[in-house]
Design brief:
single chain, alpha/beta, Aspartate Aminotransferase, domain 2, Aspartate Aminotransferase, domain 1, 2 domains, seven-stranded mixed beta sheet, three-stranded antiparallel beta sheet
């Protein structure tokens, strides 16, 4: 049986033509290595324009590497990161933040749909510092969240402001920042809100494996390239990590392709016979489904799975078609 991965994850989609065309363009001739080339310079300028910030920009191979290295920059080994209990850094990175941070800890916090509860954050920030546990030195946020929720600037500010008042640095995992932007969130707000280090997802946005790290405060960039080199994230042919961002940002496809993914999620939600468990604000649809029906769905050849909170997750991507959505929705209706 050939499995259908259309709704398993936005990671399963092919790369968008704008990204692949830029890769081909970057492949012409010789160029300087280790990010000193013209393609990387152009990509960094385009990212700075997206953010309206004079940030240091670096390109790496994966979101896990980007998140872990960013957090390692904000925390010392005997300190910790505050994050949502279901954030990618807490559940899907196999201890990478602690590995690259030489022992930094993670403090999981609750909250609906992947948004940290402000009261829980306040309680964590208010705990007395003692030598027997790792005290928080950074706050990690996600937009859009693991449950497809899109933070507004006010919601982010309500979390960032108390964290910064407590002396914490701020990291934002933007693995699906493109989807948040397509839903109305302006990435230009991030520097003004007080984010120190931002990861901008390329892979989920329709690129081959690449992620961008934006360092808003340049003092944090000191020796960052050495950190990348030690972690195996300073590629000699760096232009091939940077080029997809040129293609997606220069053409506007970074947001327009994400807008299509979001629209497909809304279409799937509208034809959904199972109860939704989270608001559909980006490109994810979460539903309540019993195990017997999930197994039947998987037996029919659809690669989908149960998520951390017990919901079944369906992800849409830039490549999701309306025909595939309608076919999938019809299958779900038959199951229900």
């Amino acid at each position: 049986m050939n499995l259908r991965y259309d709704f398993a994850s936005d990671n399963t989609a092919p790369a968008a033509p704008e990204a692949m065309a830029a890769l081909v363009d970057a492949n012409g001739g010789f160029a300087a290595g280790y990010g000193a080339d013209e393609t990387t310079r152009q990509a960094a300028d385009l990212v700075r324009a997206l953010l309206d910030a004079d940030a240091e920009i670096r390109f790496v191979a994966s979101g896990t590497a980007a998140n872990a290295l960013a957090l390692a920059t904000l925390c010392r080994p005997f300190e910790a990161v505050l994050a949502h209990e279901h954030a990618h850094v807490c559940t899907d990175e196999t201890g990478a933040p602690g590995f690259f941070g030489h022992g930094l800890g993670l403090i999981p916090l609750p909250g609906p749909s992947g948004r940290i509860d402000p009261a829980a954050l306040g309680a964590a920030l208010g705990r007395a510092e003692v030598s027997h546990r790792q005290s928080p030195a950074a706050l990690s946020l996600t937009n859009a969240t693991e449950y497809g929720a899109v933070h507004t600037p006010d919601q982010l500010s309500a979390l960032i402001a108390p964290a910064r008042s407590a002396g914490c640095g701020v990291h934002l995992d933007g693995a699906r920042l493109a989807n948040a932007a397509a839903a109305g969130f302006d990435p230009k707000q991030l520097a003004r809100l007080g984010v120190d280090m931002l990861v901008i997802g390329g892979t989920k946005a329709g690129m081959p494996p690449t992620e961008a790290i934006a360092i808003f405060h340049r003092d944090l960039a000191r020796r960052f390239d050495a950190r990348l080199k030690q972690a195996g994230q300073l590629p000699s042919k760096g232009r091939f990590y940077a080029a997809p961002f040129v293609g997606m940002l220069q053409t506007g496809a970074f947001v327009t392709r994400a807008a299509h993914a979001n629209a497909m999620a809304r279409r799937l939600a509208a034809g959904q016979p199972f109860p939704l468990t989270h608001p559909v604000e980006a490109n994810a649809v979460f539903v309540q489904m019993d195990e017997a029906r999930l197994q039947r769905l998987q037996a029919l050849g659809w690669a989908v799975y149960r998520f951390l909170d017990g919901s079944v997750r369906f992800m849409c991507s830039w490549a999701t078609t309306a025909e595939a959505v309608d076919e999938f929705a019809a299958t779900l209706c038959d199951l229900a």
